[in-house]
Amino acid sequence: MNKFINFFKIIKNKNKKNYSDNFVKLMQQKFNTYGSQKAISFKDGENWQSLSYTQLFELIKSLSNYFKKQGIKKGDRIAILSESRPGWVVAFFASMLSGAIVVPLEFKATLPELVPLASNSTPRIICTSINCIDKAIEIKSQVASIEKIFIVNNEKYSGEFLSLYGLEKPTDNIIIDSKPDDTAMIVYTSGTTAAPKGVMLTYGNILSQLNDFDKAFNVSYLPNISFLSIYPLDHIFQITVGLIAILYRGGEITYSIEFHWHELIEIMRKQRISMLVVAPNFLHVLKEKVEKEIFKSKMLQVFYRISKYIPTNFLLFTILGRILFIKIHNQMGGKLKGIMCGAAPLDLDIEKFFFRIGIPIFQGYGITECSPVISANSFTSYKISSVGKPLPSVSVKISKDKEILVKGPNIMKGYYNKPDLTSDAIDKDGWFSTGDIGKIDNNGYLYITGRLKDLIELSSGDKIQPEEVEAILSKSNKIKEICIIVNPVETGKRKGAEDIIAIAVPCDKVRKNFDDNINAIKKDIIEEINSFSQELSSYKRPHKVVIFGEDLPKTITGKIKRNLILELYSLFGNDN
């Protein structure tokens, strides 16, 4: 307890100046405050590296000086194309320190996807890792604005480009003041339907998120947090929640070049991870791994059955769950306080499973244009199956069409070079149209029920929300993934009507049981879908089932690319 009190005394003494309206100076203050504490740990193969806040800031200042020597001035763009690693973080803050606007690029994207984004944002420098250097060189050859390529690796590099390893020691830095309305980042959306758009997020947007996190989350859970970064840093949720907010609170962030399941648990144990952010498909796999451990032990099986009768109280569940399933908690390091989850719908059964073993899943809701967090469950405000309450400074209302509308200091400045799209998205009163369908209960908790663009109106006049059907069918433990699409019937008695088609990925156990015999697998899955479809109105039940042999195509945040699946079906579906 004394250590906890002393921590805040240190903060109080060192933070005499208040830079609440200047993000760059605020973060400089934080780096100086936390000094010798570990900021970043990084695993590359068998090698571990770590950087303290002081060491990290020295690299940031060195790179910022380099940018300034290259003539970078306020408002110029610097792109980052790299897997998550310490150099990404250095390039991010160094760009801001030099007054530039950061353009994070998805490192897994293809050249045809990346070149238009670079052409639109016109960066002067592209920061990249050795792993992505070939893409960066090709992008530079096609985008005239790019003058330099910089390598973010901090080890010896024998190529032609300068890297972090070769930078000069930092000199005194003249910080360009960051005003709240200045653009900090241009983040390109990875939507499932429309072409990517450059979302301009300001320093004020970022500061509003930090202030709201402080108010919405109990601060006692946040100091000295050990955070495992799984999402790539080119995603805004990872930038805001998994990078800025963690460093703002003096936490340690762990990165790893590659994640394998056995390695993941080992890292969680070694680093004593207390928090991570994931997509629902990650939890689906983790649940299977944990269940195997439970069913190995008769005692754990008994505890799991007992946990059904524990009253659904958040504090009671987390305490008793940790006690009953201490063995599982210890295998993951023994410090895990919870898992943040977003980006796609989460199966209620999965959320309940982790809740019962003492690992709360903090569902949240966000969108790039909202910086991105709109609402979230927290340690002090939690309701299972909801995406939590709106953040303190964020207002949410439901339109007549049941669309979620959002207003607050987290709303983007606009789409880069697309004022017409900006005015379509944000009305004259400042309300942003999310395109998502939802509801708010009497206690203020928000629920996401579907995507407005995905809502399908049948020729009969009935309407289908694919996510609703998918949620019902996903309850089957024989189905790993499922996507509902609708295709017009062009021949026969039902011509002019529509077929509801279930694109199903069977679980490994089903494939193994039938030795990958597609006909036998399909018959089994059809029976399963027919059984679970009884919970649905007749017009929502699938007419056809297509077996997909691999994971469904998704965006970086785990959202299923429904339009792409529809295209694939039109080409190959009828042969299945």
Describe the structure.
- By secondary structure, the protein is of the alpha/beta class.
- The chain folds into three domains: 23-178 and 232-239, Rossmann fold (3-Layer(aba) Sandwich), CATH 3.40.50.12780; 274-449, Rossmann fold (3-Layer(aba) Sandwich), CATH 3.40.50; 455-575, GMP Synthetase, Chain A, domain 3 (2-Layer Sandwich), CATH 3.30.300.30.
- It has 19 helices and 25 strands.
- The strands form six sheets. Strands 2-1-10-9-11-12-13-14-15 form a nine-stranded mixed β-sheet. Strands 4-3-5-6 form a four-stranded parallel β-sheet, sandwiched between helices. Strands 16-17-19-20 form a four-stranded antiparallel β-sheet.
- Helix 5 (111-121) packs across helix 6 and helix 7 (203-216) crosses helix 8.
- The protein is globular and about 75 Å long.
- Residues 1-19 have low confidence and may be disordered.
Shape: globular
Number of strands: 25
From the helix content, strand content and strand pairing, which structural class follows?
alpha/beta
- Based on the structure given, which CATH architecture of the largest domain is correct? 3-Layer(aba) Sandwich
The overall pLDDT average reads 86
Helix content: 25-40%
How many strands, which pairing sense, and closed or not: the largest β-sheet?
Answer: 9 strands, mixed
Measured distance between first and last alpha carbons: 63 Å
